[in-house]
Protein: OLC1v1012489C1
Organism: Oldenlandia corymbosa var. corymbosa
Amino acid sequence: MAKFSFSSLWLLVLVLLVVSTVPNQVLGQKRCRIILNPKGCNLPDCQKQCYLSYNGNGQCTSGGSFGTYICSCFYNCGKGQITKT
C-alpha cells in the first residue's frame, strides 16, 4: 500500500511541476486582428506584411460580399492593448 501511495504522490508532483513550467503569458495571451488591405488579398504578400509588421499570421478573410477578400493580420496583443476584432 505504501508503494502505491508513494508512486501516486510522485506522479502528482511530476504533473504539478510540468504545469507550473507553462509561462503565464501564454495562458492569458489575447489575440488581436487588424485589416492590412481592405481592397483585396494576395496571400503570400499578406502573410509577409503581417509577419514583418506584427510578427503575426496574415490570412485572406471574407470581405463581406461574395468573392471578395481582405488581408487580415492576427497577432498577439501587447499588455494594455485593446483587442481589435
Summary: Helices lie at 2-20, 24-27, 43-54. The two ends are 56 Å apart (CA to CA).
